[in-house]
Amino acid sequence: MTLLKSSRDAFLTVASLVFLAAYALPILVVDLAPGFRVLCDATMIVTWVAFALDYGDRLVRAREKWAFVRANLFELVALLLPLLRPLRLVVVLAALSRSMAGSFRGRVGAYVVGGTGLLVFCAALAVLDAERANPDANITGFGDALWWGMTTVTTVGYGDRYPTTAEGRLIAFGLMLGGVALLGVVTASLASWFVERVAAAQEDGAKHATDEIHRLTAEVADLNRRLAEQTGAASAQKDAPAESAGASLVTSDVRSG
């Protein structure tokens, strides 16, 4: 079962990266040949089917169906509305985050850097795709889109680049939420790490104190045993002369009689 899950996670990770490459290539290369555009579209469709099958399989296996749907609502919306191209990247982020979740606690730094970079990259692609055709747009290149993504995800909002279309603003709203969520996840993870460290230190201290108490108890018991032995030996030595004197007195009385 574990091997099957690992194989599925590896497959979904590769499929996510392939989907991301097929999505990004037509956006980054404006004069891409029509044949390559068709190939990219076919690749996205195939990987999209894989994502849909994975979601359906997880839904069937889930014990609480509605709880699973509520927990993966954005992924479901992205699957059901394929015409909303930016939402497709939600599935990519979800698939990659599931593969990273197992080592999240021990690799907070790598998770933050990788997750933030992937989120900014996907948002930059999506906003460039949405804004490029608008004559009033000021995000017309991938460099501008990346700069806008970095200032938005950090909630700085520099203001020199901003979306002008409704689709672009929707992407910006999602990126803002993603930035706040990432900050919250990092804060919670660090707080959890500190709590675990303090609890571990307290547990080690309690264990050391318990071991020390047991050692002292054993020493006291050993001292009591030795003291009892010495007291018994002293009493025996004290009683021995008295018994000898009593025996001599009895002998003398017998001889006198």
TrEMBL record:
It comes from Rhodococcus oryzae. Keywords: Ion channel, Ion transport, Membrane, Transmembrane, Transmembrane helix, Transport. It is found in: Membrane. Residues 229-257 are annotated as: Disordered. The keyword Ion transport applies. Residues 120-195 form the Potassium channel domain. GO terms for biological process: monoatomic ion transmembrane transport. This is Two pore domain potassium channel family protein. The chain crosses the membrane at residues 34-53, 73-96, 108-128, 170-195. Pfam families: Ion_trans_2 (PF07885). InterPro entries: K_chnl_dom, VG_K_chnl, Volt_channel_dom_sf. It is a multi-pass membrane protein. The keyword Chloroplast does not apply.
